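In this section we walk through a basic example: taking a raw amino acid sequence and producing a predicted 3D structure, encoded as discrete structure tokens. The instruction is simple. Fold the sequence below.
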Amino acid sequence: PEWYRAAGELGLDYVRILPDAWPADSRDFLIGNADNFAAINETDLALLIEALNEAESNGIKVVLAMASLPGARWKQLNENQDDGRLWRDERYHEQAFNFWRQLAMRLEKHPAIVAYNPLNEPHPEKVFGFEEPDENFSQWFQGIQNTPADLNRFNQRMVESIRSVDADTPIMLDGWFYAAPQAFDFNHPVDDDKVLYAFHNPGPWQMVTYRVNKGRYAYPDRVPKWWNGPVESWTIDRLAEEINAVQRFAERYEIPSHRIIASEFWYDRRLEGAAAYLSDLIEIYNSRGWHWAFYAFRGGGSWTGLDYEIAPDHKMDWHYWQAVEQGKDPEQFKPRGMNPLWKILQRQFRKNSKSQDFISP
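The resulting token sequence is shown next.
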């Protein structure tokens, strides 16, 4: 509850919630069991509604996203193994559509809900061995149309399923390669003017991720040309090239700017270049009139690299690490407050605070 209050005080319009890791009454939160979905778990649903009520009471809207679906259990809850059954077996498509029909029916008209995000970062291509949207992927892509591996068809039918019980709530669709902006040339639009098209961080991933960067890279002067490759300097225009495919998609299909959303972007606060990177990305998104959301707001547990309220150069003290080692909640030992990185984000909250209706221009 205190996070919702803090979000309201800081000027956030909405938060994107992925409840999959919440305490589940059965194997998988809300789903019951991703091996064979039948009905929404009522105990889990009550917990979700309680959280939505708390958000609404603090003036915060919610985008509800799922990291798991029937036949696609979230990797973090699946012994670190990708679950690709959804993209091989049509039965799981039907179960996934049924799950979201039931959920949308139960949550219809809840005042906190501002959008649904049916599946976070889908990646059917990885199940079939593809790591990037190259020529080999393009050939495979042409051959899997109208099969269970066809993400565009899946998204189309997902929208139809939700619309059968809820005609109005906006729906955010993630695309290929974990919602990569570089893969937008392979996304197809849905005939629904309340659908938004989402993409995540443009990267480079090895630069923005602490455990991989290891002090080697920094925006804008030491950006890797390729994996473990030499570095080069980037300008804001070069960074914008990483999202050119999103712009092409919008122009090709005449998608208005208010239906494009950068629904996740990040740069570990402990790494050199974070402030410049986040500032430039926000400038790019604002110049195009796109919605955006940074990742993340007050992540739980021991993960603090993307908690931008903690100063970039702050290292957690022994109280924090002792709590982590003892399996206790270390939240009270996270020293949040104003700092140069957080000022950049907060300034944008104030500047861009406007209608919470995603489908309004």
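Looking at the output, two observations stand out. Residues 69-352 form a domain with the TIM Barrel fold (CATH 3.20.20.80). The mean pLDDT is 94. In the next section we compare this with other chains.
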